[in-house]
Amino acid sequence: MSRAQAEERTFAVVRWVVIAFLAVITLFPFYYMLLLSVKPIDQLLLDPGRLWVTLSELTFDTYRDVLRSVDDGGQGFLRMLGNSALVALATVALTLLASVPGAYAVSRLRFMGGRQVSAVFLAVYLFPSTLLAVPLFVMFAKIGLQGSLTGLVVVYIAQTVPVSIYMLKNYFVTIPKSVEEAAALDGCSRAQILRRIVLPLAAPSLMATGLYVFMIAWNEFLFALLFLAAAPDQWTVSLGLQQLANGIEVPKTVLMAGSVVLTIPVVVLFYAAERLLTEGLTSGADKS
Amino acid sequence: MSTTQGAERRRPPETSPDPEVRRDGTPTLAQRENRTGLAFVSPTVLVVLVVVVLPIAWTVLLAFQRARLIDIQGMGLLSNWTWENFGEVFTSPGFWSSLWTTLVYTAGSTAGSIALGLVAALALRRPFRGRALLRGSMLLPYVAPVVAVTFVWEIALSPQFGIVNELGTRLLGWDKPIAFLATRSHEISLFGWQVELPLALLTVIAFEIWRYFPFAFLFLLARLQAVPAGIEEAATVDGATLTQRFRHILLPQLMPVIALLSVLRFIMTFNKFDDVYLLTGGGSGTDVVAVRVYDFLTARYDVGAAAAQALVLAAVLAVLLGVYFKFFAKRVQEEAS
Fold first, then answer.
1. Which residue of B has its CA nearest to A227?
2. Cα-Cα-Cα-Cα dihedral sign, residues B291, B99, A120, A273
3. Which of the pair, B115 or A69, is modelled with greater confidence?
4. How far is B20 from chain A (nearest CA, A)?
């Protein structure tokens, strides 16, 4: 057997081992999360190695406990879900509102400083969010935005605008200029061109960008912790879950139910639009 | 041309790309474009200015001021100058080891996640049944909320009821459960040598690799699928083996993406706070600088020291990036442009 053949055969096996390994490490933690969330805590402590749940012990009390409002003796996650959704949706709407014209200008228009602007925006990520955290903490305390969801949305917009401009710009440059020129000849202004021609054509990219922004805002933890820790009725799910784990002894199975509640919206959205998102993120990376 | 030049010279050229103004005073197309462009980016610029640039500038000031959270309300913007914060940062116990921890953590996570992402991209390159499904689920660690996945890891690694210790003691013959996230150093014997492993740090790095390899995978797979099939076929015909084809054909094609990913991941991980804070709280030898900044801010309310510490972190990153770009600038620029 030649060396080439030997290698082909070895790697044909190795490839499947790798694929199985990847499937296990990516899927198992989520299966484990789901499993523990429907298991009674005493069963978990009794036999931690058992990776299934029998029908007789299957329980949804953990979810009831997590979702019920604090007044009813629960953990109030329903309210936190509302807060998280509000913050994430507001961030998506406002970020897109700001970055669509910005990305269009960067990709199409020649203006003063236009070529530097996208580089400057990306430089935002060079600075640690912990560096921003200190002054924002103080600033928000001063103008009374501390403990309010509005302050959080403002920070999230600033954190997501650069990447959103980058993603949208990559898409806008692929739209043929001739379509816009035809519209301009028919008397459309720039704003009209953007609204009537470019936006409908860029719908997939808008979706992908919106989704990515939603995920960042939904998953964010540091700023929520800094600004909202003292205001329990404003907590987002991420913060609420972490505070729950830190507080008085709560069964791990309840924590897992909380984790499932926190994860499901993002994962559902992700699967619904996976192709859009992966293409939106990597467009431009595959050029030769 | 020469007749209009005199008029042009009086106006600074950068105020408008096309300085020629019509006699009747209506703006030219280029001027209108300039105006629209500025109007279109201004909302974004405004937000970034207020929430990013301004705070950074203020951090720089605060780092040189004696500022505790209580007195900051009444304090003037430009008073209480001091160098003490930096003295406090550099002499505070554990600063240098924390910086070293940050470096190890960042380098390990960056290299590991790119390596695993590369392996994954190579394995999933050719179609097979269920590939689309697997490709989708491989992104789960990246898209799932950090708070949820850190809890799953914590519970799975728990010495009391975690599945990892359960399997380890039952199948792998471990003497006793291992507290992965709370063990500063774990002694193992390797071929008769006693080796001290910084276990908690390694676990945190493993978590980081797990969470971010999908990101590298995504970009590497996209690039891999754009490699023209012809080159590889030609090499196969010439008798190149699989490893040779990877080494001499695929890898050079992937290098620019790998270089770009290295920079991106390095920056992101260097500044990372959530993952370490949620997994270990910065204990057991995982005290990265980002977590220390948070501790200075919330435990001691020492804004000045926290700002100084954050600034030192940013400066170290800037120096490292500077060194990197000096040596690899061309590659990254090629990919990013």
1. B298
2. negative
3. B115
4. 15
Cα–Cα distance for residue pair A203/B114, rounded to 1 Å: 31
In terms of Cβ atoms closer than 10 Å to its own Cβ (0-12, 13-18, 19+), residue A197 is middle
Q: What is the model's pLDDT at position B180?
A: 82
Q: Which residues pair with B194 in a beta bridge?
A: B189
pTM score, whole prediction: 0.87
Q: At what angle do helices A149-172 and A203-219 cross, to 10 degrees?
A: 150
Query: What ipTM score was computed for the predicted complex, to two decimals?
Result: 0.88
Q: Name every residue whose Cβ is closer than 8 Å to that of residue B230 and which is 6 or more positions away in sequence.
A: none
pLDDT tens-digit series, residues B120-136: 999 998 888 888 888 88
Kindly report the number of other CB atoms within 10 A of residue A87's CB atom: 22
State how far the alpha carbon of B305 is from the alpha carbons of B64, B92, B97, B103, in Å: 9, 10, 18, 21
- Dihedral sign of CA atoms A215, A218, A219, A221 in order: positive
Contacts of A166 in chain B (CB under 8 A): none
User: What length is written for chain B?
Assistant: 337
Candidates B155, B217, B300: best to mutate against A (most CBs of A within 10 A) is: B155
- In the three-class reduction of DSSP (H, G, I as helix; E, B as strand; rest coil), residue B272 is classed as coil
User: What is the DSSP-derived secondary structure letter of residue B157?
Assistant: T
Span B129-174, pLDDT tens digits: 888 888 888 989 999 999 999 999 999 998 888 888 888 888 887 7
Compute the average pLDDT of residues B300-320. 84
Tens digit of each residue's pLDDT (9 = 90 or more) over B247-272: 888 998 899 889 889 988 998 898 88
Asked whether the beta carbons of B235 and B244 are under 8 A apart, the reply is: yes
Identify the closest residue of chain B to A160 by CA–CA distance.
B48
Amino acid, res. A181: E
Direct distance between the N- and C-terminal alpha carbons of chain B, in angstroms, rounded to an integer: 35
Return mean pLDDT, chain B.
Answer: 82
Of B39, B124, B271, the CB nearest to A129: B271
Q: Please list every residue in chain A whose beta carbon sits closer than 8 Å to the beta carbon of residue B257.
A: 285
Tokens of B175: 């003497």
pLDDT, mean of residues B29-54: 82
The Cα diameter of chain B in Å comes to 92
Point out the least confidently predicted range of A261-275, B12-26, B93-107: B12-26
Tokens linked to B61? 């000031």
From chain B, the residues in CB contact with A128 under 8 A are 270-271, 273, 290, 293, 310, 313-314, 317
Interface check A18 vs B, CB under 8 A = yes
The answer to whether A162 contacts chain B (CB < 8 Å) is yes
SS (H, E, C) B168-203: HHHHCCCCCCCCCCCCCCEEEEECCEEEEECHHHHH
Residues of chain A with pLDDT under 70: 1, 118, 122, 283-288
